[in-house]
Amino acid sequence: MNPPVLVSDRLCFHPWEAEDFPLFTSLHSDPEVQHFLQMGDPPWDEAYLRAKFADFLADYTAHGWTKFKVTDRQGTFLGRAGFGWFPETDELELGYSFKRALWGRGYATEAAYALLGWIYKAKPIDHVIGFAVAEHAASRRVLEKAGMSLTGIRDVDGIPNAFYRHDRPV
Ligand SMILES: CC(C)(COP(=O)(O)OP(=O)(O)OC[C@H]1O[C@@H](n2cnc3c(N)ncnc32)[C@H](O)[C@@H]1OP(=O)(O)O)[C@@H](O)C(=O)NCCC(=O)NCCS
After folding, report:
1. Which end of the chain has less neighbouring CB within 10 Å, N or C?
2. Across the beta sheet with 11-14, what order do the strands follow?
3. What residue's CA is closest to ligand 1, atom 5?
4. CB of residue 116 inside a 6 A radius of ligand 1
5. pLDDT of residue 41
6. pLDDT tens track for 148-160
7. Domains of the chain as residue ranges with CATH
8. Ligand 1 in contact with 142 (CB < 6 A)?
9. CA of 139 relative to ligand 1 center, distance in Å
């Protein structure tokens, strides 16, 4: 496994490797995980998943950030968390997904907090956005707990989403 780029109390953030595709697929083939993620998207079939996974590999190679593979300190796969480019507004976007059995343990909050601390050291960007389907209370709570501020509700692919922003600390 690639060494972690970032380590927090319980989590390690690794660049993906090609052989990780089955882990990525296992996460995103759970209908509960997909419930809010897939709204407004075409079905996340194998072709869609392969393209998304390829983007994650390419983002890390090109930029040094991606939606990293997240493991525990023993190397067990937990989910994914990190950054992607939101082309509609040309902004860096924080995102995360964890395996269903692991929800409610504070992993997404820990990930968001660690990633926001890391990105401003790693890259000369001045802010990060995050968004979630407006009715996705758990994800909105994570963005808020990580210190992000609500900037408005806007449609993404016809679905109302709550947008948040986090500015580089001064
Ligand atoms: C959203 C997600 C990442 C949250 O991960 P998590 O590790 O369970 O999150 P945390 O434990 O750090 O925090 C969740 C917070 O939401 C709260 N919450 C959970 N379900 C909730 C609900 N239905 N209504 C209101 N609050 C809720 C929790 O109580 C917790 O807040 P608290 O610490 O103040 O009690 C996880 O549910 C997930 O992977 N979902 C599927 C993929 C997804 O939707 N990703 C986000 C796309 S925007």
Report:
1. C
2. 6-7, 11-14, 67-72, 77-86, 91-98, 127-133, 159-167, 149-156
3. 108
4. no
5. 78
6. 999 999 999 899 9
7. 6-167 (3.40.630.30)
8. yes
9. 5
